[in-house]
Amino acid sequence: MIIITGASRGIGKYLLHYFVNRGEENVIGICNNTIPDSNLAHYYKLNLKNDTEIKNFIAQNDGINQLTLINAAGISYNAFAHKADLESWIEVIETNLIGLFNLTRHLLPIMRSNNYGRIINFSSVVAQQGVAGTSAYAASKAALWGLTKTLAAENASKNITVNNINLGYFNIGMIDQVPESILTQIIAQVPAKRLGDPTEILSTIKYMIETPYLNGASIDLNGGLF
Question: pLDDT digit string (tens) for 117-150?
């Protein structure tokens, strides 16, 4: 089974459509605020910060087995720290980090019981570079490096791998929010001189799923920036 959070848009939506079109029957896309426009039978509306909703979701899918969890849910909030609205800042942390952890911790007992699990998180080049105005997003993504390593150490003996992809700049997802003038500057900084393609994210995910000795790792997927 494959569970993908943030599956109603961006990278999550792309991945869900790929696995569904490939013929995977047990694919579930988690969404919350954004209403999906296709493959509706594969979606489940779920607030990842709500324990009761998560428990109900697991109860309704009691056949979960051979699980791959792809944590693609994420939001951003741009403001210089001294001008930031605290509630908006906290919302990013709650969505990108706490919600991710909450779903993961509820699914880990199932993975441990099955003696199999694959957990894939998405961090960001933004957290590695230090981009002005992104303190909330960068903090939420930097936290995933430590979380990934810790969960890997706790669960490796149960054939559960937990890995992280540090995404660079791709032609999908939040890049739509970047003004054209700034996007041109970003591409000029990338040694590959282009944005990444979603197929390259997919191939990295497949590698992580198929390589059980890769565990607690963070892979930089950024066209040569680092």
Answer: 999 999 999 999 988 999 999 999 999 999 999 9
Tokens encoding 4? 């993908």
Fill in the amino acid letter for 43. Answer: Y
How is residue 97 annotated by DSSP? I
Counts of helices then strands in the chain (DSSP H, E): 8, 7
Q: Is the dihedral of CA 23, 170, 200, 122 positive or negative?
A: negative
For the question of whether the overall pTM of this predicted structure is more than 0.90, the answer is yes
Catalytic one of 14, 43, 77, 137: 137
Rounded Cα gap, residues 140 and 138, in angstroms: 5
What is the per-residue DSSP string for 20-62?
Answer: HHTT-SSEEEEESSSPPSS-GGGEEE--TT-HHHHHHHHHHTT
18 belongs to the catalytic site: no
- Rounded CA-CA distance 102/108 in Å is 10
> CA-based Rg of the chain, rounded to a whole angstrom?
17
Distance, CA of 7 to CA of 4 (rounded, Å): 6
Query: How many CA atoms within 13 Å lie on the side-chain side of 210?
Result: 6
Quick: pLDDT tens for 26-62: 999 999 987 787 778 899 999 999 999 999 999 998 8
On whether the CB atoms of residues 215 and 156 are closer than 8 A, the answer is yes
